[in-house]
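Components:
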Amino acid sequence: MAVFSAQEYGERLRKTRERMHEQGVEVLLVSHPANMNYLTGFDGWSFYVHQGLIVALDHDEPLWFGREQDSNAARILTSLREEDILGYPDHYVMSKLRHPMDFVADILKERGWDRLHIGVEMEGYYFTAEGFRVLGRNLPGAVVKDGTLVVNLVRRVKSEAEIEYIRQAARIAEKVMNTALETIVPGVRENDAAGEIYKAQISGTAEFGGDYTSLCPIMPSAERTSSAHLTWCTDRRYENGDIVLLELAGARHHYHCPISRTLFLGEPRPELQKIADAVIGGLNETVAFIRPGVTAEEVEAKWRESIAGTGVNKPSRVGYSFGLNYPPDWGEQTLSLRPADTTILQPGMCIHFMPGIWMKDFGFECSEPLVVTEKGCELFLNFERKLFSK
Amino acid sequence: MAVFSAQEYGERLRKTRERMHEQGVEVLLVSHPANMNYLTGFDGWSFYVHQGLIVALDHDEPLWFGREQDSNAARILTSLREEDILGYPDHYVMSKLRHPMDFVADILKERGWDRLHIGVEMEGYYFTAEGFRVLGRNLPGAVVKDGTLVVNLVRRVKSEAEIEYIRQAARIAEKVMNTALETIVPGVRENDAAGEIYKAQISGTAEFGGDYTSLCPIMPSAERTSSAHLTWCTDRRYENGDIVLLELAGARHHYHCPISRTLFLGEPRPELQKIADAVIGGLNETVAFIRPGVTAEEVEAKWRESIAGTGVNKPSRVGYSFGLNYPPDWGEQTLSLRPADTTILQPGMCIHFMPGIWMKDFGFECSEPLVVTEKGCELFLNFERKLFSK
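Structure:
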C-alpha cells in the first residue's frame, strides 16, 4: 500500500527534525498537503478543512489532526499509531463559534508543548491568517515562528525512489502532450480538447496510472496567450491562425513532470518563429550549463546571456524547483532561477526550466524539467523542442 | 466574452459595498478566486501567487493587483480600467526579500487608504498568515479586520442568471455520473475510470462545455469508503464486492452542480442496503421540508428526526451552500446544515444536501443539490436516488 518504504519515511522525518533543531523549532505544525504526504504518506482531498501533522522534537512520531470523518484515511494510508490520530468533531468546521486551531492548541497544552518554539507554515495555502491568530491567542506562552520551508527544503533534494516516480510521470507527460498536439485542430471545442488532455493525465500509461496535477492544464489560445495561467476557453472552437500555449504535466503518486510546448494552427508568423528560435536556442545553451555547484542565479544569467541580442525580453524567473505536490501549485516555493537566488545546485534537485514569454498580443512556451546529477543534469522528457504547427 | 452582464457585476459590487458599510470595512482586500471572479469576471489559475481586488468605499471600481505576467488576464477578461490594473514585478514572487503584501501596502499608502478599516479574508486559502503579518507591519495606522465572508455572504443568494448556469452544470453532472456508473466494472483500473469521469466533466455536453471542478472526483472504493475525501486508488482494479462512493460534479463557468451516489459491484450486502434505504428515506423527507423561512438547523433536525430508529448515525453536517468556486472547495463556507446554524433559508440560496455516511469499514453517499424557491425548493438533478449495483 505504501508508496515508499518505511525506511524512506523515517529518513525524511530524521532530516526534518534536524532542520527543526537548526532553526530553533521545537514543534512544527505541518499543514501543506505535500509535506503531510512526504512525511507520512497521507493523501486525500481533505485539505480544504484544517488538518496537519504535529512534529515534536520530544515525540518519536508525528501526530495527525484533522476532521473526524477524514481520520480513517490516516488509519488506512499511514503507519501512524492509533493514539496519534486525533480527529476533531464536525462542529469545528467552518464555524463562527470554534476554530480547528482551538483543538490544536488543546493538543499542544495537553502534551506540555504550549510554551515551546512552535513553527507554522506562515506562507502555506492551508494554514490561514485566522488559524495563526487563533493559535497565538490560545498559546500566550509559546513563541510562534515561521516554519514554511522547513519540510519544503528537505523535499528539495529527491531520493532515487522519488526521481523514479518523476521519470514515470514523464512518460505520462509525453502522452499528455502528444494527445494535446493531436486533438487540437480548427473546429474542435477547446473544452473537448481539454477533456482528452485530462483523460490522458489521469488514465496515464498502461504501465503507470496517473494522478491529478497541481495546476489544471494551462492552455490559452489566441489573444489569451498574452497572459500566464489562463486555461482553455469553454465553448470556443479553435481557428486557423491560433497560437495555443500548452503548459501541462503528468503526475504519478503526486510527483509531477511538467512539460510546456507551443502549437500554431497554420503557418507561423515570422515574428513568432523568431521568438521560438531564440527561446529554444537559449534553452539548449542553458540546460547544457546546469551542473552541481553553480547557483540558481548563475543559471539565469547564462540564460540571459544566451538570448542577448535576440529581441526576447524575459523579466520573470525562468524556472523553479518542483516535485511532489497538491493544488494549487507544483512548484516548491524554494529555488527560483532568477537574480539574487544564491541556492547552490545539488544532485537530486529537480528544476523546471520554463522560460515562458508573454507579450502584449501573444506568448510562447517551451520548457524542460530536469534533475541535477553528479556531473550535470538528466532531462526527464524525450520530446522535440520546437514550435509545433499544423 | 463576459459571462454576466455589466449590470449584474454592478449589482454585485453595490451589494458588497453595502455589506462593507454595515461591517465597518472601508477597504476590502478580496483574495478568494471565486470572489474575484464574482465581482469582475477575472478567471485564471494564477491564485497560487498573491493576487486580489481592492474594493474601497471611496473608489467606484475595484483595483486588481497581481503578478505582472498575469495582468493581461485582467485586461482581457474584465472591464476594469487600465489604471486600476496593477501588476507587481516578478521579484515579489515567493521571495525571502519581498512580499506581495509590501506592494499592496504601497498601493494603500499612495491612495491614502492606509489609516482606514481594512477587511482581509482571514480564513481564505490564498491570503496567508504571512500576508497578514506583512500587511500589518506596513500599515501601523490601519485597523485590519476579518472580512472573510463579506463577498461570500453576497454570493450566497444567487441571481436567475447564476441559477441557470447551475442548471447547465446539472446536465453535465448527470452525464458525469452516468459515465461513472457505466465505466466502473470489475477489472477496470480505477484511474482509467477516473480519466473517463474527468473527460466527461471537462468536455461537458454538446450544448454546455464544462469546466474543472473545485474538488477532484472523490471516488474511493472498498475499505477506502470508510473515509471522506479519498480519491481513486491509482493502478488498483475494481473487484467484485467493491463499494464505490462517487462524489462528483459538473461545472459551468465555475458554477458547480455536485452529485453523490454509491455503486456496489455485485449483490449488495443487506447491511448496506439497509443504510441506503434509511438515508434515502431521510433525504426524501428532508428535501420535501425545505422552504424559505426555515433555518439551517431546522433542516438538520428534520433529517435527524427522519432517520431516528434506523440505526444510521450521522455526526457531521448534512449540507452546505455551494455555487461559484475554485479549488479546493465548491462549498461557500457560509451556511451549514447542522445544529446552531440559525441561517434563515431564502429564495436563491443553493444547498447541497449531502448526508454522507462513513463508518468503520465502509460508507454510503446519496445527495441532492437544490435551490430554495419562493415556495419550496427546486432540485437541480434528475437522477435516480438509490444504491446502484451491477
